[in-house]
Write a structure and sequence with these properties.
The structure is a homotetramer of 198-residue chains. Chain A is an all-alpha fold and 198 residues long. Chain A is globular, with a radius of gyration of 20 Å. The longest helix of chain A has 29 residues. Helix content of chain A is 71%, strand content 0%. Chain A contains 8 helices and no strands. Chains in contact: A-B, A-C, B-D, C-D. The interface between A and B is large, with 42 and 38 residues.
């Protein structure tokens, strides 16, 4: 990790005059740790059926299907966020204070995702619960877009990275952002707002 | 970590046309973090005896032996999963999207193992509780087999890795998968289904 | 990581006679993991509204605004601590036992920050709750100052690091320390003690 | 991380015939993550005073002094374990299956330390609670001794490591092991068994 810092990529300005805060490894590492914890904590409160008969056990399990569904959805959602992060930051060699800040905002939304999931799978007030969840995901997408923009603008990518990669990632995040924002008013009209996400 | 990416293994196609999503380090790191958290969270709910006398303390401790047994079993089970992961991924130099996905499915089962343990050590409905636990482990073994298959098929291993290593790992996982699947119908007939695992 | 250890920075004394306990990477890594966990655990106890109507949902949410505010404040506070740590330790190449110890004291305060936040957002006894929180932050700043002092005194920084960097970081931490210490007596006079932090 | 594996230390046998399971980095990393989580989870259940007056707040805080004391003790105990681990494994370049296993046993005791602390700070049954805690620490010391023995016996250290280092670490762990084992019978006679630890 240290070596990567002391040997700046060819063409980079000397560390002392550069607006970067060093190599991107520690930012990536810290993000990975936060995502790993958030994804593991999801399973912490899963309901354990206390029924003594086999029939009662499966009835209890299916009665609480919302909990289990919420867990799997959140695991997939956070897993997908991590995949996108993995793909993008694999191309980044340096970090600026602004990139670190957008990444922290993204992490805040990741950390909130298990909470937002507990909110959305609870009973009643569908549109409101849906809004909390959709807002979390929309802000995650927005902060990711801002990170891509910063990487592109400041040239933080490794040498030889095709600029098309960023355009592609940017469009992907913008689509996710738009889908979640549009789904919010739809949720106040119909429970089929989930369809907007697909 | 970054350096490993910029110096692709000899013979690898250039990064832009390659189906890999980069070096395997970050996948390994993320997996380690998730496993470390899952294994540590196991001890979170261990019952603390509240008895005031020394005799009462040990009676309370032995009365809740299922909790402690479940903790030790899960620690060993997750520890063994990690050992197998450690051995396999130590040979992997690149990751494809499919490998990342099978690894995520494997992680989902690791994250579920503390929950499955809480399910199996609770009272009653033995066959059902046993089924939940055995299914978790069987799917973990299956996703591990699919990861081995992907590594082998796409040639993601480091140069000089003996192909026998993968056959060996594959057979090991297939045996675990078969043992857990067979143990499920056995559990509906007898409590000795545990014996199938041995 | 291993390579960085075996290739000491130019000018460093041989490892066997050196008062350092090795490279700084593992200290940085361990700190990152602790901070990542502390920041993720913040969201664990966030209150999920159980209201069935949309109106009740938002009333419940705003009624518990202290919880959510406390979460966001703690996330920002720990995030800022991490940013300062990231900036400082990015310049450090070796660790001494004393540096490791001041870093552990700093980590103790980070680990206590979610607890201190739960204390400060609860109702009543404002000055006392404020004192617990401010003391945590003041000790964090103090231990950070002691770490900077150790790095400077023992020459643990990478070659070519401008000494002004440490003076700047030291002054920053000293200011934070002073602000939190001063805010404590102020809190016993007025609820506006928060203003001292700004 | 990968690079360190592909460039085995001078004099090491080729990877395929070697009894090692690869470089020690991933074992170190996994251990760091587990220790970081265990140390952070300590603060999870700290009692938040609910008193509304300043006087009541401090009375509540001092009434629960055992909780806070237990937290600080466990933080120091786990912190010290980590320091010893940091010092020892900084010298290790390769891992054998046996080393990985002793390290897992050590990690099991680390993961149990927050639980053992909750046991020892609770009221009553002093000797029994003391025994649970002392056993956890004694087994941690024992597994650490076995790891040192394996490193020494198999020559897993980096080249140029003075053998005196291992003798020193071994004696240190043996002393801790003996102190905790001796303190157990003492605890059944007097509450001053803590003195044996000093």
């Amino acid at each position: 990790m240290v070596d990567a810092d002391t040997t700046p990529p060819a063409g980079a300005a000397p560390a002392s005059t550069d607006p970067t805060v060093g190599g991107a490894e520690r930012v990536i590492f810290f993000s990975d740790a936060v995502v790993a914890i958030a994804i593991t904590l999801l399973a912490l409160d899963l309901h354990v059926p206390e029924q003594l008969s086999n029939g009662g056990f499966w009835r209890d399990l299916s009665h609480n299907y919302q909990d289990y569904l919420g867990f799997v959805i959140s695991f997939l959602v956070i897993g997908n966020h991590w995949l996108a992060h993995h793909r993008l930051y694999g191309l980044v060699s340096r970090a600026t204070p602004a990139l670190v800040r957008w990444n922290l905002l993204w992490l805040l939304m990741i950390v909130l995702t298990p909470f937002a999931t507990r909110v959305i799978v609870a009973d009643g007030a569908f549109a409101s619960r849906f809004t909390v969840y959709a807002l979390t995901q929309a802000i995650a997408a927005l902060s990711f877009m801002l990170a891509i923009w910063e990487i592109h603008r400041r040239g933080l990518a490794r040498e030889g990275t095709a600029p098309g990669v960023f355009r592609h990632a940017y469009l992907g995040s913008a689509t996710v952002f738009a889908a979640f924002m549009i789904s919010i008013p739809v949720a106040f009209a119909t429970h089929w707002a989930y369809a907007v996400w697909a």
